[in-house]
Amino acid sequence: MRTPPFRGLGVAMVTPFTRDGAVDEPRLRALVDWLIESGVDALLPVGSTGEGATLTHEEHRRVMDIVLEQANGRVPVCPGAGSNATHEAIGLAQHAKRAGATAVLSVTPYYNKPEPEGLLRHYAAIAEQADIPIILYNVPSRTGRNYSPEVILRIAQEVPHLVGVKESSGNITQALEILGSRPPGFAVYAGDDIFAAPTILMGGDGVISVIGNELPEWTAKMVRAALQGDAETARQWHYRLQSLMQANFWETNPAPVKCVMAMLGRIEENLRLPLTPVSERTRERLRQLIREMGVPN
């Protein structure tokens, strides 16, 4: 029987960079410690928010290793290990398995946009050759194709290593349809912070969060309340956080979240091209927003 890799708040971690563009290993290690100490339930490095698409394969593997080493078993680590080339996805998943990851987050193949049969074979090949639990990442805004609940559930039935889905279609109905028909033990994670509390209250297992980078303690309180069925507390935290949830996408993620984290002293505001720091107008709006929210420095 499947077992969810985690329940609760998973953070889609940013990747800190130095001014010259290298992975900032000391700040990455400090970020791991701070997130765990703040009450997050799982770490998911080198995904979309982690700028995984801009890393070399060597850097990608190195970030996996650092996060796993620093976490040291305190929380599950489920790194991004997807690619639009199946053999590359297999290689990254194999490395994650050797490094001790709990599972991998595997995005549906972008640019290629395979048909459902190709998608099934893609995940079946990863499962067979890497032998590690897989969370399917459905994010049509980045991949160019949305996969229906019927397709995802078919793969879940035929590939037992598929243990969950990060549902980032922007349509909560899809998450609810998967929840209503999922096989036992198959986890459903909100892929958008704005849908975290509603998804969990309807039976979902948690969220893979962007705002959890900035405000992990507050976000953990919202998620924990939802998991406990305390809808009123979850609602209060949701509306306290909602403006920043939306602000994190005023410009392309993760530029806004890195801007806020730099304001809070957690990282330097460095991104890999073709991504760039936010505009000055957005920076001032973010500064005003976190001031109004009473975010502690």
What does this structure look like?
This protein is an alpha/beta fold. Helices cover about 45% and strands about 10% of the residues. It has a single domain, classed as TIM Barrel (Alpha-Beta Barrel), CATH 3.20.20. It has a seven-stranded parallel beta sheet with strand order 2-1-7-6-5-4-3. α4 (about 115-130) links the parallel β3 (about 105) and β4 (about 135-140). It is globular and about 50 Å long. It starts with 7 loop residues before the first strand and ends with a helix.
Ordered list of secondary-structure elements with their pairings:
Elements: E1 8-12, H1 25-37, E2 42-44, H2 57-71, H3 86-99, E3 104-107, H4 116-130, E4 134-138, H5 140-143, H6 149-158, E5 162-167, H7 172-181, E6 187-190, H8 196-201, E7 206-209, H9 216-227, H10 231-247, H11 255-263, H12 280-293
Helix pairs in contact: 1-2, 2-3, 3-4, 4-6, 6-7, 9-10, 10-12, 11-12
Summed up:
By secondary structure, the chain is of the alpha/beta class.
Salient structural properties:
297 residues, alpha/beta, TIM Barrel, seven-stranded parallel beta sheet, 12 helices
Tell me the major beta sheet. Answer: 7 strands, parallel
The CATH level-2 architecture is identified as Alpha-Beta Barrel
H/E element order: EHEHHEHEHHEHEHEHHHH
CATH superfamily: Aldolase class I
The side-by-side strand order for the widest beta sheet comes to: 2-1-7-6-5-4-3
The CATH class is: Alpha Beta
Put simply, the count of helices is 12
Q: How many domain units?
A: 1
Which structural category do the helix and sheet elements fall into?
alpha/beta
Portion in helices:
40-55%
Give the amount of beta strand, in percent.
Answer: 5-15%
Radius of gyration: 18 Å
User: What is the CATH topology assignment?
Assistant: TIM Barrel
Terminus-to-terminus distance: 44 Å
Average pLDDT level: 97
Low-confidence segments: none
Number of strands: 7
Shape: globular
